[in-house]
Amino acid sequence: MKVLVLGAGQLARMMALASTPLNIDVLAYDVNNNSVVNPLAPGESLGDLTQGIAECDVITAEFEHIDHAILEQCQRSGKLQPSATAIMTGGDRRLEKALLTECSVSNAKHVIVDNQQSFEQALSELSLPIIFKSALAGYDGKGQWRLKDSDQAQALWSELSEFLTENPTQALVAEQMVPFDREISIIGARNKNGEVKIYPLTENFHQNGVLSVSLAQACDEALQQQALSAFTKLTENLGYTGVLAIEFFQVGEQLLVNEIAPRVHNSGHWSQQGADTCQFENHIRAVTNLPLGNTELVRPTAMINILGTDTVPEALLAIAGLSLHWYGKTKRAGRKMGHINVSAADCETLVSKLEQVASLLPETDFPGVKSYIQSL
Ligand code: ATP
Ligand code: MG
């Protein structure tokens, strides 16, 4: 069995690592140079997209911002899982919002902005502060503008109208800022038979718009049920196959969807050590129509992203229950280079272990991590 992943980054790499014991081969398609590569050793080209499609049994994706012509070519082969529509929905905030509305899944109040009239409509319908997000190609907090004060509205509109003129396929989603208690996400898998399994809700701490730490511990059953309900409605509507992530804002006892990602997700990396079957293996199982693996929390686990640095203190590896995952990428400021998973038998031990880990991590490379861990 061969699976071709659209995208040749760390998510394809971790899918390959998780698939090897199942005798499933994973190839990756690098969209930047139209070449199929081995995601574990991406130097040599093994062919172009047409050859990759012909050679594999199943095609899937590690990101949603993929040229539509590529998605359509893959869809025509009958091998693409999840569907081109599902991937495009995750890559376009307009389609995402329409899906949430159609499925009656709660999300932040919003207005689609593509001209001055709709900008003014956003100002009158939403209360400040408002966040404007580009409909296409946003990630890690890029393509976002915040309006806190109505005095700034005209200056912001000049900037946004310039952006829209320069990028005619774009629009903006203006969203009311949600005064959330915390950000959490659910990762789940659905296979072709409609079998669904979700992992426990994960708490996410962001720094400068980028995920920094995810924490998976035993969670509130009522919240977990709300997340399952949203997951089921969205995946049924899309006829979805694979792993899907949903980011939520928690406000009191209510979950509001922030966004969805039609793929394995950074906030699910903890599952490599915290669950019997990690999100990467479950994604591969789902798209190859195998039974899904257990998604229960086996032990509380936290994930810390390594951003923009290619070294961490070796002493970390002496801590029991700590695993280091490097992605083999060239260092660049802010780039996701790897992650650290820390597990323990119970939450209390996990927190004290995390304090030990934080004391070894330099604040310059891991801003805010220490204080987040101290707040647990
Ligand atoms: P990702 O890398 O997760 O795909 P992104 O750049 O696509 O991120 P969002 O997740 O929509 O963008 O926003 C980034 C962060 O900005 C959120 O995690 C949250 O902290 C904040 N944010 C976004 N929308 C809102 C909102 N409506 N209210 C409050 N905070 C928000
Ligand atoms: Mg996000």
Ions, cofactors and other ligands present here are:
adenosine-5'-triphosphate, magnesium ion
Kindly estimate the percentage of residues that lie in beta strands according to DSSP: 25-35%
Based on the coordinates given, report the CATH architecture of the largest domain: 2-Layer Sandwich
User: What percent of the residues sit in helical stretches (DSSP H or I)?
Assistant: 25-40%
- Count of domains: 3
What is the CATH superfamily classification of the largest domain? ATP-grasp fold, B domain
| Category by helix and strand content | alpha+beta
Verbal overview:
The chain is of the alpha+beta class and 376 residues long. The chain has three domains: 2-80, Rossmann fold (3-Layer(aba) Sandwich); 109-176, ATP-grasp fold, A domain (Dna Ligase, domain 1); 182-374, D-amino Acid Aminotransferase, Chain A, domain 1. It has helices spanning 10-19, 49-55, 68-76, 84-90, 93-102, 116-125, 153-166, 221-238, 271-274, 279-287, 347-360, 369-374, and strands at residues 2-6, 25-30, 35-37, 58-61, 110-113, 130-134, 144-147, 172-176, 182-190, 196-198, 202-207, 210-216, 242-251, 254-261, 301-307, 322-326, 336-343. Strands 9, 10, 11, 12, 13, 14, 15, 16 and 17 form a nine-stranded antiparallel sheet that branches. A four-stranded mixed sheet has the order 3-2-1-4, sandwiched between helices. Strands 5-8-6-7 form a four-stranded antiparallel sheet, sandwiched between helices. A hairpin with a 5-residue loop joins strand 9 and strand 10 (196-198). The longest helix is centred in the middle third of the chain and has 18 residues, at 221-238. The N and C termini lie far apart (44 Å). Bound molecules: adenosine-5'-triphosphate and magnesium ion. Magnesium ion (MG) binds next to strand 14. Adenosine-5'-triphosphate binds at residues 108, 131, 133, 138-142, 175, 177-178, 183, 206, 209, 247, 258-259.
